[in-house]
Input
Amino acid sequence: MGKGQAGLMRKVIGIITARMASTRLPGKVMYKLANKPVFAHHVQRMKEVNGLDGIFLATSVDSRNKVLIEEAERLGCGWYAGSEQDIVGRHENLCKREGADAFIRVTCDCPLFDIDSASQYVELFKKDFYDYLYVSNMPIIHGTVTELVSRRAIEEVHKHYRGAAITLYIKENLAAFKTRGIDIDDDLCRSEYRLTLDEQADYEVLQHIYEALYRNRPLSLHEVYVWLDDNPQIAKINSQVEVKGCNLIGTSLSEKFLYSIVSSGNKYIILDEQKRHIAPENFLSKMLEIFPELKIGSIN
Output
């Protein structure tokens, strides 16, 4: 476990963002998969993430969330109820209350999120400070990957944004944050399958998966994909579901290149193969190293 910026051990918590008043599928977080609420599966998976210093529900003060809070308490999961609209504020306030330096964030529509990459985030953060860690070779829109956000970053985001896409401001202003993307195994990069829970068709797919495979332990993504490969008719059930606009934000970060030039606010920045921001002069130096035939004047 690494040391913090002031010589203290860094604290990372897991936050499951959930509420009962879902727009497309109200109450979905308490729908049953293999006789267990969707929220309970999230908690079970989060408990398998190595190095976490607590697991919490981030919900709103809406009275409909009482049943969700009661479920969190039954599962031994902490909770925070904040503004219905200010979702960023919920995360910031929870971090402050718990004295956390960062959090692994997953929305409660991802009952098959990857545990290993979340564990890798925690390990990386406790060795070296990052504002934002994410999977660089699999889009978040398919429901299988999480994000790590530092307390410093969420406090800065809250000055500019309060909505559901809590990392949007970071993605639009990468030069202002220390970020890093990690790769997951190619076998887990299966963007042809939709494993999130947003529509009734999604629920049907997840029901089939859990009924076939769940045995009171978190399912591995690998076994899920093998089963879907063997049962292609199941994946077709939700193959035509449209992705919501906010879930498409930032998917360009999942491209895999040696270098990337991306738009960040009103300017452009350069990212290396691990999606870390690099200075233009370092990029130019590397280009001259790769292409020695180029003249400095031709790329200045």
